[in-house]
Amino acid sequence: MRLRTTLLTGVLYLFGVFAALVAIYAANALLDSQDVSILRVQYLLLGLAAVTLGLIIPLRWWLESLSRDLFFARRHLETVQNRLAIREEDATLLTRINELTEKFSETRNLEAVLHQAVSTLKEVLHVRIVLLQLYSHEDTRFFLRIEEGARDLDLGGELYEDVIEKGKSRLINNLQSTPEYAHLAGNNFHSLLVAPLFRWSRQGAKETMGLVAAVSEEQHDFTAHDQYLMTAFAKQAGMIIENAQLYQKTEALAIRDGLTNLYNYRRFKERLDEELNKCRAEGRSLALLMGDIDHFKHYNDRHGHQGGDAVLRGVADILLRSTRGADLVARYGGEEFVVILPRTDLEGARAVGENIRRRIADEKFPGEETQPGGDLTITLGLAVFPNDGQAADEIIESADQALYEGKRSGRNRLVVYGAPSAPGGRASES
What does the alpha-carbon distance between residue 380 and residue 396 come to, in Å, rounded to a whole number? Predict the structure, then answer.
């Protein structure tokens, strides 16, 4: 545009020189001519030349003004285009994150959703490496890592301290000039953009629960807008993660007993049906232990409900420590407990049950000396699929009858369904 204006100005000046020459010629001819018609033409030429010379300056000013206006109009257009591009990036990021929020509400698969979120951030920031990590303040460690474009990227302890402990964001376009991040510079990284992930604590304060970082092995000039996008992403991702954690807690509350944190009756029935179907298909056995704390009402009456609750939690802890990860321990109701032992035969289940009985008898519970016999104990009934029942209700009924037989015959013992109970607090023989 500037070249065009210069050319127009040059043409205008050439035209002005031409007009000046015409004016000189007309003036000289006017002095020598006597013909009236020729005089009129010469006067006209002289007038046009004078007008043209008089218009050169305003026309020049108008061209300069037009050039300036066009320059600023072009700059404004570029600004508008940049803003539109920025808004498009913003809209793309927020739209994709909202889509991921909806997807999480459908799938409840947090890790898969976060993988897609990290891929979206890579696309928007135009970088190759993005890392997202979640942090547990209780365990003082990172427990989930989503990484795109690199493997086992270590951001260094200094950066973790800045982001996790201090909640700071970082935008660095030359890591070589930042001594505290020499670890990254030594691994041939040049640029860094990182932001913390926040959640709201129970006290209403912001708490760091992780970080998201973009790093570049080439000189990458991250901008303030890139930092804004990263912060917006971190905020939305933090909401998804917090909602996921709340959902998991709510789901856990729905299937766990509030006092002992064992699975509740509902989850026990669901899992028993599932495991029976598996064992039926595989032709394997399944064992069910049902236990009841002996003289628990007596203990409650002597030591109050708080003391009784402490005993229930203590027994639950022993049950968990005496079983495998594949087993399920649940509170059946009151002082009753059940243990599902998948793929376990009679002898294996008998060993587990006797170990539980012995450990509870050996445990020193506060005030147990006031119990009948001077000890706090448990009685257990054992039933095994398929011999003692085919359906879940039949197995439960068989284990309950064995438990009743153990109570009737003296307590503090393990009784196998269909077998006589053994005295003296020992497992019955089949």
Answer: 13
Per-residue pLDDT of the chain (430 residues), as tens digits, is: 555 555 555 655 566 566 656 555 655 655 555 555 655 655 565 566 566 656 666 766 676 676 776 666 677 666 655 665 555 666 666 676 666 666 666 666 778 778 888 888 888 888 889 998 888 877 777 878 888 887 778 888 788 888 888 888 889 998 888 888 888 888 888 899 999 988 776 666 778 888 999 998 877 678 888 888 888 888 888 888 877 777 767 666 788 888 998 999 999 999 999 999 999 999 999 999 999 999 999 999 999 999 999 999 999 999 999 998 889 999 999 999 999 999 999 999 999 999 999 999 999 999 999 999 899 999 999 999 999 999 999 999 999 999 999 999 999 999 999 876 544 444 443 3
CA 179 – CA 166 distance, rounded (Å): 19
Residue 3, both tokens: 């070249």
3-state helix, strand, coil split of the chain in percent (to 5) is: 60, 15, 25
Measured between alpha carbons, how far is 288 from 101 in angstroms, rounded to an integer?
Answer: 41
Q: pTM for this structure? A: 0.51
Q: Kindly give the residue spans of alpha helices, DSSP state H, lying in 130-264.
A: 157-160, 182-186, 224-255
CA dist 270 and 268 (Å) reads 6
- Catalytic, 274? Answer no
Contact 184, 177 (CB under 8 A): no
Torsional sign, CA 137, 143, 149, 152: positive
> Three-state secondary structure along 124-138?
HHCCCEEEEEEEECC
C-alpha to C-alpha distance for 118 and 145, rounded to whole angstroms: 11
- State the chain's maximal CA–CA distance in angstroms: 156
Cβ neighbours around 176 below 10 Å, total: 14
Which SS3 state, helix, strand or coil, does residue 15 take? helix
How far apart CA 319 and CA 311 sit, in angstroms, is 12
Catalytic residue, chosen from 270, 335, 394, 397, is 335
